[in-house]
Amino acid sequence: MLFLDPDWVTRERDPRHWPEPLCDDPDALLAWRAAGFVSSQAAGWVGFLDKNYGSVAWTNEEQIAIASSWIVAGFDPQGAHAWMDVLDFDEDDTPATARSWAGAGFSPERAEPWLEREDVVDAAAYENAGWTFWQRDLLAVLLDEETAELVHGGPVDDLGLGHLRHDLRESGFAPGRVLDFVRAGLPFSDWPVYERLMSEGVAIDTVLSQFGSRVERSYESRYRAEQIYRVEPGTVRAFHQHPYWSDVPDLHDMRHEPQAPLVGWPGPELVETWAENGGVRVERYGYGDFDRPSCPEDYALEPRLDWDEVQEKLVLDAFQSEVEADELCEIEWPPAGSLWAPGYATEPVGDGCDRHEWFEAHCFECTAPTGDQESEPAEFRWYITVRTYAKNQDGELDEIDSDHVHIMSTFLDPRSVEYSEFALR
User: Fold this and answer.
1) pLDDT at 199
2) pTM value?
3) What is the distance between the alpha carbons of residues 417 and 425, in angstroms, rounded to a whole number?
4) Which residues contact 21 (CB under 8 A, 6 or more apart)?
5) Per DSSP, which regions of 58-202 are E strands?
6) In the prediction, which pLDDT does 241 show?
């Protein structure tokens, strides 16, 4: 038997304890009381309606109807507010939509990424099969018509793509395995063989890479996959997570361009990067702009090249060949280098659609870029001082010329340039 506290009953019936908009409006107060609400309930729902519906619910009857629909759906004001934060606003269907997702075991946070991707039935099916939303996105990107033909063993139309995704999801293979095999374009009939090899600990990434290399993917498909790789959780990189291209360039990849009289000279090898040396703290800049107080040239560390005696002799001989037979050359060694041009690299960026302000890889209404990044290499220039001597009448050497000579430029990816923590110049 339920006993009500008389003080509670008195307080709930007292109009002065009702929320401010209602206690000042006798008709509204009567309407909410007639609908079965006590003051504490009405206060919660009036606050909820004001925050989430604003002026949409114009009349008392409409406000009461919305609050009642959320109560029937099984939510209190706090729970309803959490769902309103993630659902697209729909005056009539929002409580029912929230109830269907909650009934399938989703919290608002878990439901949010699925809401614009799948209906509640398919979202639950993916999660029950162990799939995350980003794995679902990657499957949609990797399983294009060409790859589907390889997996299916024959032509697949748009309708068939949906059926094939469903079949792969429900195939019993772990999501990571499905994505590995789809990226490689393996026929589904061969999957059990490779699954057994992987379960026995056989490393087959090389084999998968060889199969995957025959799969021709469009730039758009590769770009969308790359965007998904960037935001997926975890650090273990399975085959399907191997990037198509890297944001980190090869730090040892650089090109020398010798100047006259050294044309044809291959130039020295890179000994190591400053980061590999570990002697100083260095920074590199990706696609972002340089953000130091002065210009990049003041902070740039020149590449650690092998300016050994062999290189010195080659350079000296080249300059000696340019002077008269009775003249002698001398060079200052090693060359002094500095950043001449920092270059730039711009990341290709997709465009959003009517539903997304920014590009979303899983949304095929968003427009992917059509080409690779634009870039201009960074250039380091290397200089030496060349002095020329000739014998005077007394047979002694006199300096007859001194010149600061640009002997070589080194070009590299602007993202490979290493910068000091402090200004060097």
Assistant:
1) 86
2) 0.70
3) 16
4) 28, 46
5) none
6) 76
